[in-house]
Amino acid sequence: MQTDPATPVSAEHVRVWDAPTRLFHWSIVALVFLSWLSADQGYMRVHLWSGLTLLALLLFRLGWGLLGSTTARFSDFLHPPRKVLAYLRTHARGGRVLHAGHNPAGGLMVMALLAVLLAQVLTGLFANDGLKFSGPLALLVSDDASDRLTRVHGIIFNTILVLVWLHVVAVGFYHFVKGDNLVGPMVSGKKHRAHVPEGVTIIFAHPALALGLFLASAVVMAWILF
Amino acid sequence: MPSEPRAPGSLSAPLYLLCVALVTGLAIATIMALRPAFAHKVLEMVGLETRQQAASGSFYAVRVAPLFAQHCISCHGENRAKAELRLDSYAFALRGGRHGAVIRPGEPAASELMTRITLPAGDDKAMPPEGKTPLSPDDVTVIRLWIAAGASPTLPPSAIKGAPRLVAEVTFPDSNPAATRRQRAPLASVMQQLSARYPGIIVYESRNSADLELNAALRGMAFTDADLKAFLPLRGRIVLMDLSGTAVSDASAETLAQMTALKTLRLTNTKTGDATVSALASLKSLRSLTVTGTGATKPALASLSQRSVAVHGDGDAD
User: Fold this and answer.
1) Does B233 lie in the same domain as B143?
2) Are residues B188 and B307 in the same domain?
3) Distance from CA of A157 to the nearest CA of B (A)
4) With bands split at pLDDT 50, 70 and 90, how would you rate the model's confidence at A131?
5) How far is CA B201 from the centre of its chain?
6) Of the given ranges (B4-8, B29-33, B54-58, B135-139), which has the lowest mean pLDDT?
7) Partner-chain contact A96 B75, CB within 8 Å
8) Contact at 8 Å (CB) between B41 and A134?
């Protein structure tokens, strides 16, 4: 792991997000949209590969949450409920709490999204469209079980929509009400110094580790499927 | 947690939440406009729309719904609603799917459903799709007539003329030769004796049954009350008896009353009468009785008719 103290990249900005985390975030956005579009329009082969890529990315993110850069690690943004509530209470009173990476409420949202996305791709492996297409593991379960999981697949999609809506509303709240732009840093990786706590140290993992983890995730996915 | 004074953005929290509510409402309204099925779901959820029920016994319930159930709802039902189309109830069928209504009352030619079910097999858009049981031409006619008559939820079957006759589906129980052999075993020796004495008169109802049919009509007057009595050992298995034109008389009333499995009895042109009819009152299984040319009278037959026994011949002797 490459150690890289959070030295400012300019007088006003600090690097907070590594490239793999940002790439993961925007890839998930694109793939969730593609998965919906392909299923909606009946392009089930595209849907399959979109889902499989999502699975590989999610496996990668689980590994990156343990081995990645400081702000990507679960240990950095997973907090006990009382801490999340304290954070929300502070905000409700008009106070402001700075975090270099995900804040406690954002961390909870990340975990919720990862959980439902994982549940979505796993149920998709066993689902079928009732016509000519079945998930790659659908033959391992009975037709009834496959139908039930298909129904769950649809329900989870609605849950994803709700979580995405909540996520976007929260990001908008930070931007328009708190004056804290969260989208820009997720694109550039850099955050304005005023929004980063003083003296924080962020250790960035080497991108090669991310590449290795992603390849390993792809291999695990392929091993499960084939 | 390090804390700093609030650096305000461009909107207050209430104003932002109002904007969120407006944008969300606008987004939902847009989706409702683009996706009629979603719109119906939302309107129903907020109580602005109710589901229309089809009347039981209506043409829809008797003729159309069974076709949807057999051919469509595995993909367009509660468990899976492809293209957001459900055909498992009248209300859902009329609402249509993702792209709007599929049934236009009174306009079969303009109804997407008709278009899809009449496409040639092999067409990607044909319904039911390849691999599923196709609709027969009669099925298509039934649906077309229903739509042409206004796709009504209440119109009775008699109101729609020209519909192909409703054919009841007949299913045959699976053959179980071992079970049949077991059931027939206790009858074997009696059957052997009676078959030798009365060739061709007593036979099994079918190859999968131990029930028997007795047909003495071909022996005519040579078949007497005494001959009928010889079949008493099989009384629990004889389900059909044709004694037409035989010498059987009211003297057999007691014998017939012991044929407890009897469902059909033909006594045409025999010397039977009310005594026999009265004796038959104890036969719970009896469903059909033919008394043409007998001495049975209407008053005697009335009690059987009231028990839903189909009586053929009207008791002219009265």
Assistant:
1) no
2) yes
3) 14
4) low
5) 35
6) B4-8
7) no
8) no
Contact A87/B1, CB-based, under 8 Å?
yes
Shortest Cα–Cα distance, B87 to chain A (Å): 15
In the numeric block, which tokens belong to residue B221?
């007057």
User: With left for phi above 0 and alpha for psi between -120 and 50, is residue B151 left, alpha or beta?
Assistant: left
A129 CB neighbours in chain B (<8 A) are: 82
Whether residue B277 is contained in a domain is answered as yes
Q: Which of residues 71-90 of B touch A (CB under 8 A)?
A: 74-75, 79-80, 82
Provide the pLDDT for residue B315: 61
> ipTM > 0.95?
no
- Give the predicted TM-score (pTM) of the model: 0.62
Per-residue pLDDT band for A128 (boundaries 50, 70, 90) equals confident
- Does A129 or B237 have the greater pLDDT score? B237
* pLDDT tens-digit series, residues B196-240: 999 889 999 888 889 999 999 988 999 999 999 999 999 999 999
Q: What value, to the nearest 5°, has the Cα angle with vertex A112 and ends A107 and A118?
A: 125
* Confidence (pLDDT) at B266: 94
Residues in chain A: 226
Give the domain extent around B41.
Answer: 21-50
In the beta sheet, which residues pair with residue B311? B289
The nearest CA of chain A is from the CA of B175 a distance in Å of 27
Q: Report yes or no on B14 lying in a domain.
A: no
Length of chain B: 318
**Position B85 pLDDT exceeds 80:** yes
Find, among B55, B45, B54, B97, the residue nearest to B76 by Cα: B97
Contact B291, B312 (CB under 8 A): yes
Considering the domain boundaries, does residue B230 fall inside one?
Answer: yes
Q: Does domain A20-179+206-225 have CATH number 1.20.950?
A: yes
Q: Do the chains contact at A177 and B82, CB–CB below 8 Å?
A: no
Asked whether the beta carbons of residue B80 and residue A169 sit closer than 8 angstroms, the reply is no
Mean of pLDDT values over B121-133: 83
Contact list in B for residue A98 (CB cut-off 8 A) is 2-4
Alpha helices in chain B, H assignment, sequence order:
13-34, 36-45, 59, 65-71, 90-95, 112-117, 137-148, 177-184, 188-197, 225-229, 253-257, 274-280, 298-306
Residue A194 Cα to chain centre, angstroms: 25
Please give the full DSSP string across A121-183, using - where no structure is assigned: HHHHHH-B-SSS-B-TTGGGS-HHHHHHHHHHHHHHHHHHHHHHHHHHHHHHIIIIIS---SH
Provide the residue type at B214 as one letter. Answer: L
